[in-house]
Amino acid sequence: MAESSKPTREQAEDAVRTLLRWSGDNPGREGLLDTPRRVVDAYGDWFSGYADDPREYLERTFEEVAGYDEMIVLRDIEFESHCEHHMAPIIGRAHVGYLPDGKVVGISKLARVVDTFARRFQVQEKMTAQIAAVIQDVLQPRGVGVVVEATHECMTTRGIHKRGVSMVTSSMLGGFRDDARTRAEFLRFVGDTRR
Questions:
Q1: What is the pLDDT of residues 77-131, one digit of tens each?
Q2: pTM of the model
Q3: Does residue 161 carry a catalytic annotation?
Q4: Active site includes 70?
Q5: Is residue 80 within a helix (H) or strand (E), and if so which, with residue range?
Q6: Which one of the listed residues 80, 84, 153, 185 is annotated catalytic?
């Protein structure tokens, strides 16, 4: 979104007051006076991923790895996101693996890539594919695997009200898609996602 078309903070706080009135409450009462400010601050945090470019996190790599060319897996990357359909939280974990081709990236950068995409309005399937695609595109490894498991509050707190349900998605590229043994090794490293 162009910066000039982005609503001002005052407009965003007014929108929160409108929703409070629409819900049947009075935004002028003591307990809600600071709610618009707090909600806009929270949105600034929750959706900070729009200001980040995940590619930048992957650009600094290391080549002095003594020829290491086996799988690298970072498991249990916790994230919070929001459903683009209901603006309800999505809470989960991502597991990211890749087969390096002469260079590796700092492991914290993989977690930052996950956070960048999670801190946007999302659909889990799209987020999973985005994480894998940017790692493949920037690092050019021999393959990438991403598994995401999450609970969706749009399903647990509204509509069908089903608790204890999680969704698992995966994206396998390169060697992770083409080689069943590589895919099986990755899934073994990731383990049972219901831990």
A1: 999 999 999 999 999 999 999 999 989 999 999 999 999 999 999 999 999 999 9
A2: 0.91
A3: no
A4: no
A5: strand 72-83
A6: 84
